[in-house]
Design a protein that fits this description.
Aminopeptidase, seven-stranded mixed beta sheet, 36% helix, globular, GCN5-like_dom, N-acetyltransferase domain-containing protein, GNAT_dom, acyltransferase activity, transferring groups other than amino-acyl groups, Acyl_CoA_acyltransferase
């Protein structure tokens, strides 16, 4: 068994908790930097993120020592070692606390209807999507990457009503529904269709929901996603 296979076996012990790490290994963008029975560190080339879990202080110490001080971002599955991580990174960092949701069903979800149609969007939509999404990190190059992976748009009477895509690390996100098209089932239709698209391409359908975003959690439950009990942490 090679190192990648051993890492997958380690993560499969709790698939829902570690499904984000399984996805980067599946895509081939994750490099195993540390692996033993009490911890794992991956570097994801797609998102430039160091992703890890540590079940002992010894594993945490060794993993954190391997992370460059100028690391772009980290994804951690525990927070008890964050003081040591902050010391390693050498400056204050932002943090987003998330719940992880994943499609754990044996079959794909059913698609849902809304008064319009879904279709893939091309790069001509990048400027408008960037404006509507409105997050600083999502510049033109970032949105172009989303388009290349598959940016799904909802259209009502030929007008853009909303869109959804996948982030660099593989999570489903960027969901936006324009105000005048809300309460028409657009968001649910987009999310169900994107789950199916990810599954059709052999991926794990998963999402990260910022803690406290009850509307997003409700949508996850409505479309049939399973929400994990554990938190994960984006440090950037």
């Amino acid at each position: 068994m090679n190192e990648r296979d051993r890492a997958i076996a380690y993560l499969e012990r709790d698939r829902l908790r570690y499904i984000n790490l399984l996805e980067v290994l599946r895509r081939g963008s994750g490099e195993v930097l540390f692996l033993r029975e009490d911890g794992l560190l991956l570097y994801d080339e797609g998102s430039l993120a160091y992703m890890f879990t540590a079940e002992s202080s010894q594993a945490a110490e060794r993993i954190i020592a391997l992370i460059p001080r100028d690391a772009e971002q980290c994804v951690t599955h525990q927070n008890w070692y964050h003081p040591a991580l902050r010391t390693r990174l050498g400056r204050d960092r932002g943090m987003m606390v998330c719940r992880q949701a994943a499609w754990m069903g044996e079959t794909q979800p059913e698609l849902s209807a809304f008064p319009g149609e879904l279709r893939l969007m091309d790069v001509s939509w990048v400027p408008r999507v960037r404006t509507l999404y409105g997050h600083d990190y999502a510049d033109g190059d970032y949105i172009t990457g989303v388009v290349k992976r598959g940016l799904l748009g909802a259209f009502v009477d030929g007008e853009l009503a909303g869109f959804i895509g996948t982030h660099d690390e593989g999570t489903i996100g960027l969901l936006q529904v324009l105000p005048q098209y809300r309460r028409l089932g657009v968001g649910e239709a987009l999310y169900r269709a994107m789950i199916c698209r990810v599954l059709d391409h052999g991926g794990y359908a998963l999402g990260h929901i910022e803690e406290g975003n009850e509307a997003s959690l409700a949508l996850q439950r409505k479309v049939g996603m399973t929400i994990g009990d554990h938190l994960l942490y984006w440090v950037f």
